[in-house]
Amino acid sequence: MKKIILIKLGGSLITEKDKPYTSRDDVINQLAIEIKKIITTKKDTIFILGNGGGSFAHYPAKKYHIQDKTKKDLFGYAAVQDGAAQLNRIVVGALLKQGIPAVSLHPSSFVTASGGVKKAFFTDSLFGQLHNHLTPVIYGDIVFDEKDSYHIFSTEALFSLIIPELRKEHYQVEKIIHLTSVAGVLDAKKQIIPLISQQNFVEVKKHIFKTKGTDVTGGMLHKIETALSYAKNGIPTYIIQGDNKQKLLTKLLLNQEVIGTTIV
Amino acid sequence: MKKIILIKLGGSLITEKDKPYTSRDDVINQLAIEIKKIITTKKDTIFILGNGGGSFAHYPAKKYHIQDKTKKDLFGYAAVQDGAAQLNRIVVGALLKQGIPAVSLHPSSFVTASGGVKKAFFTDSLFGQLHNHLTPVIYGDIVFDEKDSYHIFSTEALFSLIIPELRKEHYQVEKIIHLTSVAGVLDAKKQIIPLISQQNFVEVKKHIFKTKGTDVTGGMLHKIETALSYAKNGIPTYIIQGDNKQKLLTKLLLNQEVIGTTIV
Fold first, then answer.
1. pTM for the whole thing?
2. Which residue has the higher pLDDT, B212 or A226?
């Protein structure tokens, strides 16, 4: 079994929250350096990366009322697709600079939807990239929807689509890591909730803070709900802060204890 | 029948030949303005655009010996994919600036190959974009090849893959236009050859000049051979200069006579 770890670089972590189309290049470059070291160390593991849209995708999505089904704006569709792809280029560029053979996997070119759920999903390119020992980088994107014109699939939702396909091809998805701009899931007292499971989710839901910033894909609640669906397949998710100097990602991958939220 | 015209913006037209990763933004912007006017005028016609790789794709392809099957370089694969996608973003950005709802269609995410020919081709995203009245912009790209690790599909080759799919869905492909950095196909005396067909191709082949610049997809001969294959399906190709102030594209689409090469 080939081991796989999926890592999401959160959009609000790698872009400036209040500045449209502005990436935090220092954060992205620091993450690229850390990921390069990890890939070099853990040679038995395949990494699939994903980046959120941050202010590159959420800003045009808001501007063109993309979430308002009564105001379908096809120019807005194009603008969101462009913004999402722009940020993905910046992320891939930073990874290439560190010598990682990173390749984009563009969701709007290989996924379509029907009424907000997957209609078709072309997996040949993904498996080709994995076969070639490349590091795929997907991202939250706007895709064609045969009922609703278009649908936004977040990086989390795309991970949900990819995981069963990976399992079918006998890849073992070991864990999912979300690098976010916060230290984990916070409760009403701004304390980190260390563990979330089906058992305590109803209670947790009452107390969690909404994540800041413009996010048309649902913020932290969306992350938790998607993570609980991964957990049903035995795949844990770790939500940790990505923009600090503590190298939490490296520590987590070396099985050291890190501050953050685990969802099982 | 929905009428379709495919237009290729040649890579050596829209990038600086001798400068890697340098786009000719003035040329791209001028073309975007012209295309906007054409789309507004010809409301009964759907346009699919494509851009070549120019110095964005051909430079890394040469650097990493992408065409040398004995020196497979997977970092090179990633670098070529990145370069091609970078230029496509610039082109799409210029089209969006003119109000065209341009969307990228990324070949490496929806096409795979086997021994240099198409293996799988996911058409749902393309037809979704057309259904949504968006303007797809494809580009020459490096894709997974199950036998040769990877394969470069030029924009021309991708048009060849797309045309039969369009016809199956009852789109009528009216013509193909190549906007190039030269005024047409030139003979040994640097005179434009006005008409190329199966009948005179053998003779023409002896006399044509190779196009200048780094081009790993075969240059002018490749364009002609691909165009002759379109012609077998009754689709003419026009090779005209794209970087002049004569608005040849507009004139051609208004059925005015223009200088260039027609391949039938």
1. 0.95
2. A226
